[in-house]
Amino acid sequence: MPARIVALVAAAVLGLVSLGLLAAGGGLLWADSKKDDDGYISTGRDPFEAEYRESAGSRRPAAPPDERFWVASAQGAGDQTLTWDVEHGNWSVVVMNADATRGVDVELSAGAEVPFLEPAGLRALIAGLVTFSLAALLAVLGIRSGRHELAAA
After folding, report:
1. Which of 57, 66, 81, 143 is the most buried (most CB within 10 A)?
2. Which residues contact 104 (CB under 8 A, 6 or more apart)?
3. Which residue has better confidence, 64 or 146?
């Protein structure tokens, strides 16, 4: 009787683990399917909100391109692309005229390149299927051992 209970409990636990792995694998593959032609993830939503800050000062600031605090920048007329290897921290995007004058008109999109999504999703799905198979095997063994115990009694 104890072996039967252990097999059934282990089957239930492994069944739950397999469901988590299958869900995670499916989620990762779904996110990977949202990549655009350039390989960037796009959700099709507009999560950006503009935040405006006015700051009074006693002198005219230096031209933005001359400042040294920018981590990455792109400038010029027409379409601009900025590629930056993200580092840990909190970051903000600043869009402004190169001469710091008013009147900025911009259409902005952002993306992230996440190359590990597909392999991680496939590995999670495979692990989920293997774990589910093991759970099913343990469940069958637990049920069969219970039948043999009943027949012997």
Report:
1. 143
2. 95, 96, 97
3. 64
